[in-house]
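Long-time lurker, first post. I've been practising inverse folding by hand and with some scripts of my own, and I keep getting stuck on stretches where the structure tokens seem ambiguous. Below is the full token string for one chain I'm working on. Before anyone asks, I'm not after the true native sequence, just a reasonable design that respects the backbone. If someone could post their per-position residues I'd love to compare against what I wrote down in my notebook.
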């Protein structure tokens, strides 16, 4: 089965064109007269330039850059921030082999003001078909519930047996922008 990736930028032959365009955009915005929206526009341009300059490099801690951008947004607008990403990126523990997750940086900065919501599913169709999980994964157990969708509050009070199960080590599938069924079977 062929896997499909939504992050085409990492394979682009000529990403220099994107870097040049982003740099030019940043320079143009930097030269504009200062007004109420200038710092926000400059931050957007800075973030986009940084993404294209470093996108695809394994040594880059992109999660750190994402977290810094969200912290900047919150501090400069006062708005609440919602970061939507995969479990490995939003979790407040280090789950990534490339370094700390955005969630761990956000939790460090916001403390109890940061909450990570994990999303998972039993099976479905995305860019690739994702089959039902095998029994060793939590998704298999959670998939036995006769509901199309539900929320499970891991912080709520549960009966002792449920709390014991929730506190025990378990496996979940962490599916990124592609799913290679052949790799999973190995």
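-- Answer (accepted) --
I ran through it position by position. Result:
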């Amino acid at each position: 089965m062929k896997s499909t990736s939504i992050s085409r930028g990492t394979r682009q032959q000529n990403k220099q064109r994107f870097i040049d365009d982003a740099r030019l955009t940043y320079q143009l915005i930097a030269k504009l007269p200062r007004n109420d929206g200038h710092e926000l526009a400059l931050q957007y341009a800075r973030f986009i330039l940084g993404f294209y300059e470093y996108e695809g490099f394994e040594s880059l801690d992109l999660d750190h850059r994402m977290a810094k951008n969200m912290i900047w947004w919150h501090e400069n607008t006062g708005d609440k921030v919602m970061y939507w990403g995969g479990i490995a990126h939003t979790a407040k523990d280090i789950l990534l082999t490339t370094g700390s997750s955005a969630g761990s940086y956000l939790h460090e900065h916001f403390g109890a003001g940061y909450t990570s919501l994990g999303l998972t599913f039993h099976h479905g169709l995305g860019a690739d078909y994702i089959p039902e999980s095998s029994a060793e994964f939590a998704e298999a157990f959670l998939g036995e519930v006769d509901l199309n969708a539900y929320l499970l509050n891991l912080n709520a009070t549960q009966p002792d047996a449920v709390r014991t199960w929730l506190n025990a080590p378990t496996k979940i599938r962490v599916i990124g922008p592609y799913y290679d069924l052949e790799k999973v079977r190995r």
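A couple of notes from the structure itself: The longest strand covers residues 124-125. Residues 9-60 form one domain. Happy to go over any region you disagree with.
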